[in-house]
Design goal:
The structure holds 2 protein chains of 2 kinds.
Chain A lengths: L3 E10 L2 E11 L4 E5 L6 H9 L6 E6 L2 E5 L4 E2 L2 H4 L2 E3 L11 H11 L4 H14 L15 H13 L5 E5 L7 H18 L2 E6 L2 H7 L2 E6 L2 E6 L1 H6 L4 H6 L4 E7 L6 E7 L4 E6 L7 E7 L12 E13 L4 E7 L2 E7 L6 E8 L4 E4 L3
Parallel strand pairs in A: 3-9, 3-10, 7-8, 8-9
Antiparallel strand pairs in A: 1-2, 1-4, 4-5, 5-6, 10-11, 12-13, 12-15, 13-14, 15-20, 16-17, 16-19, 17-18
Helix pairs in contact in A: 3-4, 3-5, 4-5
Chain B lengths: L21 H28 L15 H8 L1 H34 L5 H13 L2 H12 L4 H10 L9 H25 L4 H9 L4 H12 L1 H17 L2 H6 L8 H11 L5 H25 L25 H27 L10 H4 L3 H8 L1 H34 L5 H9 L6 H14 L11 H10 L1 H13 L3 H9 L4 H12 L1 H17 L15 H11 L2 H26 L6
Classes of the chains: A alpha+beta, B mainly alpha.
Amino acid sequence: MTELVLKDVSRRYGTALAIDGINLSVTDGEFLTLLGPSGCGKSTTLSTIAGLDQPTGGRISFGEQVLVDAASGTFLPPEARGFGVVFQSYALWPHLSVEDNVGMALKLRKVPAAERRARIAQALELVELGSLAKRYPGELSGGQQQRVALARAIVFRPPLLLLDEPLSNLDAQLRQQARIWLKDIQQELGLTTIYVTHDQDEALAMSDRIVVMRGGKIVQLGTPQEIYRDPIHPFAASFIGNANLLAVTGSATSHVGPCDVTLGDGQVVRARTPLADLSAGAQLLAIRPHLIRCVPTDDASEIKVEFGPESYLGDHFEQEAHVAGSTIRLSIDTPQPRGAGRIWVRAQDAVVFGVDG
Amino acid sequence: MTYATLSDRASRGGGVQRSFDRARLAQWLIFIVTAALMLAPALPILLQVFVDRPLYADGWQFTLSNIGDIVQSERIGRIALTTGIFALFSVIIAEVLGIGAALLIGRTDLPGRQIMGDVLMWPLYLSHLIFALGWVVMYGPSGFVTQTIAQQTDGAPWNLYSIAGMSLVAGISQAPLAYLYCLYGAVRSVDSTLESAARTVGAGPLQVLRRVTLPLMVPSIITSSALNLVIAVETLSIPLFLARPARIDTLSTFLYAEGIAASNPNHGLVAASSLLLMLLVGSALVVQRILLRQGHRYETVKGKGSRPMVLSLGTLRWPLALLTGLILLVAVVVPIAGILLRAFTSFLSPLVPFTKVLTLANFEHLFGNPANLRAIGNTVQISLLSAALGTVLAVAVALVIQRSSFKFAGTLEALAYSPRVIPGMITGLGIFYAAIILPPMGWLRGNIGIMVVAYVMATLPLALGVIQPAIVQIGRDLDKAARTVGADWVSSMRLIMVPLLKPALLGSFILLFVFHLKSYIIAIFLIAPGLEIMGVTMLSLWTNGDVGELAAFATLQIVMIAVLLILSRLLFKVKIYD
């Protein structure tokens, strides 16, 4: 098993820490996504794996081979790592034709001309661009450029494929198609893939596992289902699924499971916590907009709110409601009349976190 | 599809391994070559300052008397003062003309602005030597125009051979530089929404120019002023042609007289006054740095494809066009026409009709002298070689500075730009000293190699000025992508960056070639019998009083440069100074 292992990897620019002690291991054939808002360190992490950026602390190894070790000063340059990289900008060389872009890696590896031609053709076939081999990047559409970039990254059969927001420059419809197509190719080749994105839909749809990052740190690591259903951090809950976060107070608990919290105006909400060490006092309550109901429900806490303006979003309405000095968003089928009203939240849908970090 | 399956995982290629670190080796090599090139001429000058006799003499001893002589000499104090006044006035003239032209030509609906902009550039394409000659032939005490007016008014209308006269000539010949900096640095690149914004809050078109456009030009004005100051301080031919006859000296003519013309050159004094010259130039650049420290206040966010607003001059259109045209005619066209006229006549005077003095004798003299032909051949050879080598070195240095993780990239950049502080004559002097005392440079003596070394060194900042902005335009991902598919630093530069830089390299080559073709200052200390070059030969034609032959030579050089520029525009679509 060739496994990519990051151990305490940090990257410091002057006084700013771009990534701060990342620990991660990626197994063979896995599709792993680094997900987070801009500036969370996901692209820096990818760059340190590719060898395009040198971490200031920690160690990265791939199988037996140490790629970089800040302690011993080991640093393997990108060309010696041989990982396929797809850049956000695609970075196609404008002075070279599509086939020369794709063939560069083989030329550098001194692959004989005949085999080179065959492998270029194969790679272009795979991305369905066989007919455009003689074109130049400037003559291609964004979607075609993205495919050339992928062909260029896989033509030399890299053991690891690194993708930096490869779909972010495509329009919404093309992005959906490209997502499926990219995942198909990845599975067909059985390529270990690390994918960087800020788009939660992409991450949920494509990944075997997702790493949620914020402020240069890993917030949560798990399968898409785990991340979505059982966030263990308020940031994971709000970033994926747009959960409402409310400031509450509650007592200390020492085990995962049911707990009660009190809103700022004294209303008590029955909830649960995924944390085993919740301390007493200020806590955060996360509720997803579509799990809030406006009709009485079994095993649900009733909360008095003040309904605010709604906006029509096609298949549903989004409405604001004010409770205890905070604003929450509701995703509902029929908007409620403005003014005083009530909502119901099931204990399993109300998740409590600590306020730290 | 059977592209690659899990089963052939074993056959998957990893990275490209190399037995040694080619990149580091290349980067160090570039660093060492640049450092040697830049320091070789500077160190011997410093040494000469503190030595009591010429470096090539035996048994020298260290002394401070050279510095003492300079400090105590009243004459050198006067010369330094003259140089300062001359430089100051010529910069003021150049900037006023340049700023005015940039605004008028770049921003208004002035009729004929395109062609006027082109004519304004002529002095930049030609050397000071040619330009000064044109002014002397037309406006000098016995010049054609001066005499014409003197006949009518009974007495010379002006005296070109004065500090005012040479400031005017230097100012006009440096105006294009100020014009270019202001035009491309501000007038053309300012986001037009900045000006539109001023219009929306109630400013009229002229107020916009005064309150928004002009203040945004400040960095361009400072930068071009500093450059023009350096050029004014080091220029030789303008003071030599216009001030020497009036017994006025500047540092450059003093150096020329003491170091070249004197039968027994006082090298200690020459080296010490070069140091003084470098100090003058260096302090100008330091002032520029300090003034530009607040640069962010002038930073303009460039709008994509924004069209600069064109200011309508209204009824002033034609009077202003007439005035601008007249200035250009008098200041640029007439002097150059004068050179051409003088080249084809035996004598140029309003008293004698042209037809009586028309002759090809000047050209017969020119081409009849084998030394002149040798000078032309040498110049072309040296220019080609230096332009090629200079471009290669510049791109190598620029790539290390901008696209590598080389530890001493900052030092390399400082070294590469250091010739800016060193006037061309002193570069030549330094190389001359270096060839004497540094054994490995000895073999360059007496062949064109020594000039090539001096030219490459002196014009490295010029070439970098063309190449560095072009590198900035190329996305960093492009060479990073090459690294990820297996290219080391050297290959990624060779396969990706250099091909993408082709237009900039061609531009740099042509710019350097033109620059070397017309250059004379750098070579003054380096020429030897058999190693003549055009510029220096022309200088000695002036000293010998062979004005007709000199005009013919100047005509030849004008034609060469014009042909070269037109060809490069037509064939390669390269416009230098863009």
